[in-house]
């Protein structure tokens, strides 16, 4: 009790009047506000996720699988296309794959020649499209036009049309060194100059020798550049050499089969298809780099160097003793100019390539673990 000018003033604090219903009302209102805030945050997070959604065609293949993994690790949302009925279980086991409530990874079945299905897959992927899918067979095709050339060329055009319709910022096309070599005139016209991004495969030379895969890749890439120029679409291409490394997918792919067959005693010199090798993780890193680099343009050779298949076989024999690796005594790629930094354009963007030894060891270990070396596994 205080006195002020003779007045007695009480300083006791009186609790506010709270009806029996007040706590419930406060709790209900608070919960509603929290739910609203949570919903808003979730919507914002979902919007942010979709803003970074990209499409990867052929997402369950050798290169595609590693690209999907790299993108998920960088926080991208990914729509991966696969052939109808194809196995994508290994993709769903990746971080951010199946069961993730944010649905970072979506699997969409779409044949390259099914334009509406591709358009549905690409819709909403404004951040970018990686066109990796392309037909490739371990055996010579019975009908090369139907099995290789048509799906490669028309499939590429279908993807580009879908990307243009969806307002995609950039399309990164995975081409191949098979769109650069063979070119018998290159050494004659450019003596002493290593193969670079200005080199294109000579179609007539390949057709005469029934080398249909380089025909399909060359025609597909040229069609892409014509489309991009006509429609002002932002396109870059990456041209990997023979791609090696661990296999995420269950099946054997064509580039890994090159090492498999060499370890099993093959005498094939790969005269028409060889420039060097590259680790699959470097290819995936390069693809992401090309999407994220605003001033990237044109073609990008992707290889840890240019060297003869003969030199590659010697390295394999040293790293993998106990296998029946062929020893080549003569040049396997006559006239090929060796170059350590052949992928200068990518190196200038900051990409650091793994050495060929790492690609070989990782690939051999994976082939062995998956049983693809069979009775030709280590003999020691």
UniProtKB/TrEMBL annotation:
Where does the record place the NAD-dependent epimerase/dehydratase domain? 54-297
Q: Which InterPro entries match?
A: Epimerase_deHydtase, NAD(P)-bd_dom_sf, NAD(P)_dehydrat-like
**Gene3D superfamilies assigned:** NAD(P)-binding Rossmann-like Domain
Spell out the molecular function terms from Gene Ontology: oxidoreductase activity, acting on the CH-OH group of donors, NAD or NADP as acceptor
Which key words are in the record?
Oxidoreductase
From the Swiss-Prot or TrEMBL record, give the protein name: Cinnamoyl-CoA reductase 1-like
């Amino acid at each position: 009790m205080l006195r002020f000018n003779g007045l007695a003033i009480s300083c006791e604090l009186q609790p506010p009047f709270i009806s029996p219903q007040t706590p419930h009302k406060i709790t209900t209102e608070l919960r509603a506000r929290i739910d609203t805030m949570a919903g808003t945050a979730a919507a914002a997070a979902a919007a942010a996720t979709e803003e970074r959604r990209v499409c990867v065609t052929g997402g369950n293949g050798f290169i595609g699988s590693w690209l999907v993994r790299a993108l998920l690790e960088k926080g991208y949302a990914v729509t991966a296309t696969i052939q109808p009925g194809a196995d994508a279980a290994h993709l769903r086991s990746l971080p951010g794959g199946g069961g993730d409530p944010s649905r970072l990874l979506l699997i969409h079945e779409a044949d390259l020649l099914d334009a509406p299905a591709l358009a549905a897959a690409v819709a909403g992927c404004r951040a970018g499209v990686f066109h990796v899918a392309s037909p490739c067979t371990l055996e010579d095709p019975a009908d090369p036009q139907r099995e290789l050339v048509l799906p490669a060329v028309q499939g590429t055009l279908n993807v580009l049309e879908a990307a243009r319709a969806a307002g995609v910022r950039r399309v990164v096309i995975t081409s191949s060194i098979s769109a650069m070599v063979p070119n018998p005139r290159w050494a004659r016209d450019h003596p002493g100059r290593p193969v670079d991004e200005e080199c294109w495969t000579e179609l007539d030379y390949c057709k005469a020798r029934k080398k249909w895969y380089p025909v399909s890749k060359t025609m597909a890439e040229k069609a892409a550049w014509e489309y991009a120029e006509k429609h002002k679409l932002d396109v870059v291409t990456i041209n990997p050499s023979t791609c090696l490394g661990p296999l995420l997918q269950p099946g054997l792919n064509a580039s890994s089969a090159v090492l498999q067959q060499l370890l099993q005693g093959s005498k094939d010199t790969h005269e028409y298809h060889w420039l060097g090798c590259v680790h699959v993780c470097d290819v995936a890193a390069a693809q992401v780099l090309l999407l994220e680099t605003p001033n990237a343009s044109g073609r990008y050779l992707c290889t840890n160097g240019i060297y003869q298949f003969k030199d590659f076989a010697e390295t394999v024999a040293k790293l993998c003793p106990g296998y029946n690796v062929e020893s080549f005594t003569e040049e396997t790629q006559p006239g090929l100019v060796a170059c350590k930094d052949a992928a200068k354009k990518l190196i200038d963007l900051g990409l650091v390539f793994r050495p060929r030894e790492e690609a070989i060891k990782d690939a051999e270990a994976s082939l062995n673990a998956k049983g693809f070396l069979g009775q030709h596994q280590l003999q020691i």
